[in-house]
Amino acid sequence: MTEQGKILVTGAGGFIGGRTVEVLHAMGRGPVVGGVRRWSSAARIGRFPVEIVLCDVTSPGSVRAAMAGVTHVVHCAVGGREVTVDGTRNVLQAAREAGVQRLVHISTIDVYGPEAGEVLESRPLQRMGALYGDAKIEAEEACLAGAAAGLPLCILRPTIVYGPFSNLWTVEFAQRLQHRPWTLPRERAAGICNAVYVDDVVQGILLGLEHPAAVGEAFNINGAEWPTWFEYFTALNHHMGLPPITAESAAVSFLHAWAMKPARDAAKFALRRFQPQIMALYQRSSLAKWSMKRAEAMFRAAPTPGEFLLYGRTATYPTTKAERLLGYRPRFPLADGLRLSAAWLRHHGFIHSDHERTVA
Amino acid sequence: MALPCIAVVGCGAIAELFHLPALRRHPDVMGRAVLVDPNIARATELAGRFGAAGTAASLDEVVERIDGALILTPHRLHFPLALQCIRSGKHVLCEKPLAESAAEVDALIRAAADAGVAMAVNNTRRLIPAYQAIRDRVASGSIGSVRRIEIEFGEPFDWPVAGDGYFGVRGGGRGVLADLGAHVLDLACWWLGAEPSLDAYHDDSFGGTEAVAQVDLRGSESTLGIRISWLSKLSNSYRIKGSEAVLEGSLHDFGSFTIRRGSHTRRERVEGAKPFAEYGHALLDNFLEVAVGRAAPLVSAADVRSSIALIEACYANRRRFDVPWHEAYTRLLHD
C-alpha cells in the first residue's frame, strides 16, 4: 500500500466484509476499522482486537465520522437501494473528502444480467428490473463518476461466493442437503455454478487495495474450477459427510417446485398477516409445532421455480483480466474450500451428527 | 406502604427493553426513580418515556438518597458499582454476570452482610418452572446419580446493544461466556447441586470477545459439556443423563420436559410457565420488597458464586478452538 493509514471496511458485520476484516488483521495489513451499521452485528469481528465503529452508509455524517484517519476503504455494505446506491454515493463522497488513496467497491456478476457464454468485464451492463442487480449497476456508475473525479478506486465483481458465514450459498444448502428427499436432480442443476471461495475474494480485495494497475478498472473474481450446480451440491454433500444424493426425476422435481409455490406463498401471507396468533399456537400445541417445523423443512428443501433458472445458466466469468493485470490466481480449489466450509458448518452446529457418516 | 427510591444505573438496551417496562408496572415507584448514565441525553430520553423522576450522570450523585439500585451497566462495571451501593447501605439487584471472579462475589457477600443489605442477582432462569422441576428431580435422586449434563445455547447475536462496550477490546475480552454462559453455567451448577471442576475450556477469541465457547466440566460422578454461541442457532436444549433415567428438553420450553427410562419416554408438564419477560418482572417485584426490608432476594449473590468461579476458571485457562477455516488465509501469503 502507498502510505500506511487505517483501512475501513464497510459492511464489516456481513459475510465478505467480516472475512476481509479478519484477514487484513491476521496479515498485519495496518490498523483495520470494521464499520458496522448496528453494534449488534459486530459479534463476529469483535473476536479480533480491531477498531469497530458505527458506519451507517445511509447517513453521510456517520460515514464521514467513520472515515477519520482512513487511507483505504473496502466497501462491502449492501442492502436495499438506499444502502447499495445512496450508501455507495455517501461512501464515495466521504472518501473523496478524506483524501482516501484507494477504494475497493464490491459489486456482483448480477450487473451483467442473464448472459450466456464467457462474460468478460467489457460486456455492457444490463438493467433487468431486479432490485439487487440494478442497484449494483447504479452503484458502479457512481463509482465511475467518483473515479473520474479523481478517487483512485476499483470494482470487483465476485461470482458465487461460498465459504464460512455464507448464508446464501453454504448454510442454506447445508440445511437443504440434510432434509431428504433431495429434490434437485442433475438435469435441473446442470448450469455453471462459478463458485469462488471467500478467501479468494479477499485475495482480490488485497490486490485491489495495493496494485497500481487496479485503479479505474472492474474485475471478475471467480474460482479456478467451474463446477455445475449439481457438482457443487454433491461435493458439499460429500464433505458434510452425508449419504449420497439420490434425487427424484427432473419432471417430478419441476412439478414439486411448482406445486410447492402456492403453499409457500400462502404460508408467507399467513405469517405476515397472523404472526402473533401463529406463534402463540406454535408455543401452545406440540402438534402445531411439529406441523409447522415440518412445513418449514419442506419449503426449505424444495427449490423455487426461479432457482431452476439460476441452476440452468451456462455463463462463465473468466478472471483473465484480474490474472493479467493484478496477478490474481485462485488459491482454493473447490475441494479445499468445501472441506473448510464443512468444518466450519460442523463447528457451528449446522450439521446434525445423526445425519453424518464418515467422509472417506 | 413504604415506597422505595430506586436508581436504575445504566440506560442501555437491557434497561430499555426489560427493566424499565417492568418498573413502569409500579407507577408510584417509577415516579420516584432516578436513571443514571454518563450519556445524560439517553437517560433523560428514557426518563421522559417511562416517567422516571429524574436523571444523574453518575451513581455518586444519587447513591445517598436511594434505597436500592438496579445495576444494568456493561459487565465489567457490575462489581465496582454494586460494591459502592452496598457500602453506602443500599440494596442491589445486579444484572448477570454479577462479577468477574469468585473473590469479587465473596467481597460483595461480605460487604452486604456488614452493611445489612441484600445483594440480588438477575439470573432469571432460576424462576422457570420446568427448570425448577428438573432441579427437584435431580436433587430427589429420581434419575439416579447424574452421569452427564449437556447443554447447548446459541442464537445469532441480535441484542440491540446501545453502545460499543459489548464487543472486541472494549468488551474487555469477555464475550459469550460472560453473557450466555452466566445463565447456562448457573443452571448446570444448580441442577447438579454442586460446583464441578473445569476440565477444559475452548473459545474463538483472537484477542477480542469470544463468540463461541465450549466448556467441559467434571463433577464427582459426572461430566458436563456446555456449548454456547453468538454466531449460530444451536439446538438450544439440555440433556441430563442419570444412572436410571434421562431428562431432556428445549431451553425455550418453560413448562415441560421429557423423562426417558429405558424405552419408555414421558412428557412432564409443569404449571406456571409464562413468557420470559415475566420472570424478570417477578425478580424486580421481589427486589422492590427487598429494598424496603420486607423480603429476601429470590436469587442471591451466594447462589451464583459457583458459576462465576467457573467462568473465572474458564477465562484463566482459555484455549482457542482448532479453526482451520480461519488459518486458511495463510495460503494467500504464498505463491
Radius of gyration of chain B: 21 Å
> Could you tell me the number of beta strands of chain B?
15
Q: For this structure, what is the CATH homologous superfamily of the largest domain in chain B?
A: Dihydrodipicolinate Reductase, domain 2
| Model regions low in confidence, pLDDT < 50 over at least 5 residues of chain B | none
Largest sheet of chain A, described in full?
7 strands, parallel
Give the N-to-C terminal Cα separation of chain A. 44 Å
Parts with pLDDT < 50 across at least 5 consecutive residues of chain A: none
CATH fold description of the domain at 6-158 in chain A? Rossmann fold
Widest beta sheet: strand line-up of chain B: 14-13-12-11-7-10-9-8-15
CATH architecture of the domain at 6-158 in chain A: 3-Layer(aba) Sandwich
Which CATH architecture of the largest domain in chain B?
A: 2-Layer Sandwich
Question: What oligomeric assembly is this protein in?
Answer: heterodimer
Percent range of helical residues of chain A: 40-55%
Along the chain, the helix and strand elements of chain B come as EHHEHEEHEHEHEHEEEEEEEHHEH
Mean pLDDT of chain A: 89
* Rg of chain A (CA only): 21 Å
CATH homologous superfamily caption of the domain at 6-158 in chain A: NAD(P)-binding Rossmann-like Domain
Give a quick precis of the structure.
The complex is a heterodimer of chains A (360) and B (335). Chain A has 360 residues and is α/β, with parallel strands linked by helices.
